[in-house]
Specification:
Blueprint (H helix, E strand, L loop, with lengths): L1 H15 L19 H5 L1 H20 L14 E17 L2 E13 L2 E12 L2 E16 H5 L5 H4 L13 H4 L4 H14 L17 E15 L2 E3 L3 E4 L4 E17 L9 H18 L4
């Protein structure tokens, strides 16, 4: 029985070690088991994977022209908002019970055991939050035009490294499927022609918000009974880490100068971003 208890305690300790430091030091983007060099290039690997999947998605849907020409024309722009958020917390909640046994008393000729106890408890907790955001703007023609980004997104010339733990690196981001789902509907039920335009102009806007949340936690729950102290039964140490990696892409027409998103594209992006930001806020 002692060996079984020792093995269980050792296993719990090993599971908790990667979370040591939660809430008391600035969180890192990488997990504790990842190599240090992975963390140094994690943002680069994430943005490269997003860029290459975006290019592949645009080129795929543009193989089937619509009544307005390419579904995602070269004069469209792509807004990227990348949010990497980590929340780490730790809590120490010790609890002890002081037990005192008294001499037996008697009642109606019966001997009755007597004792009293006093419970002591406390709580010490800490939370650290880190949020990294990055914004990029790309012209569709400059990133997905013929021969563009051939070296960047060619798996044979420069294989995309997927050794980072972020699911934005390891996963199929579904950008091509998203575009296929929406450009067909926009072709059949497109926006009205802007007033004063000399030719039909495509003004449909598409926003894609993808979020991965990974939660890891651990705790220590000792149990003991001594004379006169006893305790345990509830966790005295809790460690938690929550990592959110969010991708927001908005495809839409550019403004008059061609180097910035149009108002409708910009407002669509901002509104989606604001809703996501409010959803990440902790409750009261």
């Amino acid at each position: 029985m002692f060996n079984l208890s020792l093995r269980a305690s050792t296993a719990a300790l090993l599971l908790t070690i990667p979370l040591v430091g939660c809430g008391v030091v600035p969180p890192t983007l990488t997990e504790a088991w990842e190599a240090q060099d992975v963390g140094a290039d994690m943002v680069l690997k994430i943005k490269r994977n997003i860029l290459c999947e975006t290019i592949k998605g645009i080129r795929k849907v543009n193989q089937t022209p619509t009544g307005f020409g390419p579904p995602i024309p070269p004069d469209y722009g792509v807004q990227l908002q990348l949010t990497l958020s980590v929340v780490e917390s730790s809590g120490f909640t010790p609890n002890l019970t002081y037990n005192c046994t008294l001499t037996n008393g008697s009642e109606s000729g019966l001997s009755i055991g007597r004792s009293w106890s006093l419970g002591l408890s406390g709580e010490l907790s800490s939370t650290a939050t880190r949020t990294d955001t990055a914004y990029s703007y790309w012209s569709v023609g400059s990133i997905a035009g013929p021969g563009k980004n051939k070296d960047m997104c060619d798996e044979q010339a420069w294989p995309i490294e997927r050794d980072a733990s972020s699911l934005l690196v390891k996963s199929d981001l579904g950008i091509a499927r998203f575009l296929e789902d929406h450009v067909k509907a926009a072709d059949l039920l497109h926006s009205s022609k802007p007033q004063g335009a000399k030719k039909p102009e495509k003004i449909d806007v598409y926003s894609y918000d993808l979020k991965f949340v990974v939660v890891s936690s651990g705790g220590v729950t000792p149990q003991f009974k001594l004379i006169p102290l006893s305790g345990g039964g509830t966790p005295i140490l809790n460690l938690n880490r929550s990592r959110t990696h969010e991708l927001l892409l908005t495809f839409g027409p550019t403004g008059p100068n061609g180097f910035a998103p149009s108002q409708i594209s910009f407002y669509q992006h901002i509104n989606t971003q604001l809703g996501s930001t409010l959803a990440r806020r902790p409750g009261p």
